[in-house]
Design brief:
binds 3-isopropylmalic acid; 2 domains; 10-stranded mixed beta sheet; binds magnesium ion
Length: 368
């Protein structure tokens, strides 16, 4: 049997730097655990635009459809701000999500003990936090038609459309309930049913899926603005949060910051199962390309490394090995190792991206 295949798309900004550290972890699994991957690397975002004039070449898109999992670093940067909208780096990422139909975006927000006093919130509010945001990723206002900037009389109007079909809501609700069963068995669904028809339908369908097939899971509904407030007031009340594409984008940044740093948060974007039973999948850190620190050795590779751990768990059924990576990360943090984004106390000196990657590899060695 051939090795499982990975397509690595480092992208822009700190993407390549953090991905270099992920490759060390991938290589470690080949060398020390006999778990080898066939790895190929390609361009996405601004890097692809620079070479091909498009943020995602058709060949790369085709390759992404074939592999067992895609690992993506980050896209975008100020150099590309003035590009035409259709070729902006983000369009490459959105095309991958849409064409691979990666409708379920899993964004865990876990507070590592060693970082509990690093959050902008009080320690007891975040210590032990473990929530999972399930963001719908292939529909809603990100993709709805009509969209565009149009002329209306003597001024222009910008239009985007929030649009959800019953089946789109149904499948994301199922993904959330399935996950909840493996965790705290609680789902909170967030929308704005008080002002949006799409929110009314969202609430109805989530409730129906629950009543028909997941009555054993505790379900609540919340308006998304209240959800944002509750996330900073008492985040531990949540287990799984399921929400649409745009609310999920905003709420997951908020949840990420509860844990101390955006540099810590991984994500998995999953689609329907392929012929081999594995879900179509792409794994990426929640953070962006961080142009302000690019090339300085300051980037935190942990979010990207934890994204690979999610790949082990969700694409390759290697939950124990995923836990091994998570424990290695926990260990280096407990040992006091900090990249620049994690500095909270006087007298702490940061380690570099490379040093963090090497320390995690060493912690993996120690786990054997
Ligand atoms: C994210 C990002 C993306 C999004 C951007 C880069 C297109 O913010 O993954 O959260 O808005 O979905
Ligand atoms: Mg975002």
């Amino acid at each position: 049997m051939s090795n499982p295949s990975l397509l690595i798309l480092p992208g822009d900004g700190i993407g390549p730097e953090v991905m270099t550290e992920v490759v060390k972890i991938i290589d470690w699994f080949g060398a020390k655990r006999g778990i080898a991957f066939d790895v190929s690397t390609d361009l996405v975002g601004g890097a692809a635009y620079d070479k091909h004039g498009t943020p995602l070449h058709d060949d790369t898109m085709a390759r992404a459809q074939e592999v067992d999992a895609v690992l993506l670093g980050a896209v975008g940067g100020p150099r590309y701000d003035d590009l035409d909208f259709s070729v902006k780096p983000e369009r490459g990422l959105l095309r991958l999500r849409k064409e691979m139909d990666l409708f379920a975006n899993l964004r865990p927000a876990q507070c590592f003990d060693a970082l509990a006093d690093f959050s902008s919130l009080k320690k007891d509010i975040v210590a032990g936090l473990d929530i999972m945001i399930v963001r719908e990723l292939t529909s809603g206002v990100y993709f709805g038609e009509p969209r565009g900037i149009f002329k209306e009389g003597n001024e222009r109007v910008g239009i985007n459309t929030q649009r959800y079909t019953e089946s789109e809501i149904d499948r994301i609700a199922r993904a959330a309930f399935e996950l909840a069963r493996k965790r705290g068995n609680k789902v909170c669904s967030m929308e704005k049913a008080n002002v949006m028809e799409s929110g009314i339908l969202w609430r109805e369908v989530v409730q129906k899926v629950h009543d028909e097939d997941y009555a054993d899971v505790e379900l609540s509904h919340m308006y998304a603005d209240n959800g944002a407030m509750q996330l900073v007031r008492a985040p531990k009340q949540f287990d799984v949060i399921v929400t649409d594409n745009l609310f999920g984008d905003v709420l997951s940044d908020c949840a990420a910051m509860l844990t101390g740093s955006l540099g810590m948060l991984p994500s998995a974007s999953l689609g329907a199962p392929m012929a081999n039973g594995r879900p179509k999948a792409m794994y990426e850190p929640v953070h962006g390309s961080a142009p302000d620190i690019t090339g300085q050795g300051k980037a935190n590779p942990i979010a990207c490394i934890l994204s690979f751990a999610m790949a082990l768990r969700y694409s390759f059924d290697l939950g124990d090995e995923a836990t091994r990576v998570e424990k290695a990360v926990e260990k280096v943090l407990a040992d006091g190792l900090r990249t620049a984004d994690l500095l909270g106390h006087e007298g702490e000196t940061p380690i570099s991206t490379t040093e963090m990657g090497d320390a995690i590899v060493a912690a993996l060695d120690a786990s054997l």
